[in-house]
């Protein structure tokens, strides 16, 4: 599993992110606080607080993770450790 953060600031951002997750053959979770939703669920994403960056966890091979991360690179943000 690997994780990174994304910022989804508009409805179009969420739509594009969900489309990318749907094309990914592995499981992708989005975490906000104590809530975890399936990244392939647009309703699930809209139930989260998207005013802050959310954590994305990809449960798949390195190649699947890299392909997915490249497809959503426009939304990725660096968070301080």
Helix content: 25-40%
The largest pleated sheet is described as:
5 strands, antiparallel
Number of helices: 3
Unreliable spans? none
CATH superfamily: HPr-like
Q: What's the structural domain tally? A: 1
Span of the ends, CA to CA = 18 Å
Structural class: alpha+beta
Oligomer: single chain
Any idea what the CATH architecture is? Answer: 2-Layer Sandwich
Q: What best-fitting shape do the alpha-carbon axes yield?
A: globular
Strand content: 25-35%
CA-atom Rg in angstroms: 11 Å
Quickly name the level 1 CATH class. Answer: Alpha Beta
Order of helices and strands: EHEEHEHE
CATH topology: Histidine-containing Protein, Chain: A
Concise synopsis of the structure shown:
The protein has 81 residues and is of the alpha+beta class. It has helices at residues 11-23, 42-46, 62-71; strands spanning 2-6, 27-32, 35-38, 54-59, 76-77.
Describe the model.
This protein has 81 residues and is α+β, with helices and mostly antiparallel strands. The chain has a single domain, classed as HPr-like (Histidine-containing Protein, Chain: A). A hairpin with a 2-residue loop joins strand 2 and strand 3. The longest helix has 13 residues. The mean pLDDT is 94.
Write the layout of secondary structure elements.
Blueprint: E1 2-6, H1 11-23, E2 27-32, E3 35-38, H2 42-46, E4 54-59, H3 62-71, E5 76-77
Antiparallel strand pairs: 1-4, 1-5, 2-3, 2-4
């Amino acid at each position: 599993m690997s994780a990174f953060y994304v910022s989804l600031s508009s409805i179009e951002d969420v739509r594009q992110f969900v489309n990318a997750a749907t094309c990914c053959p592995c499981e992708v979770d989005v975490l906000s606080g104590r809530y975890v939703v399936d990244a392939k669920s647009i309703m699930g994403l809209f139930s989260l607080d998207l005013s802050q960056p959310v954590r994305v966890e990809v449960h798949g091979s390195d190649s699947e993770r890299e392909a997915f991360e490249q497809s959503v690179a426009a939304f990725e943000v660096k968070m301080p450790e």
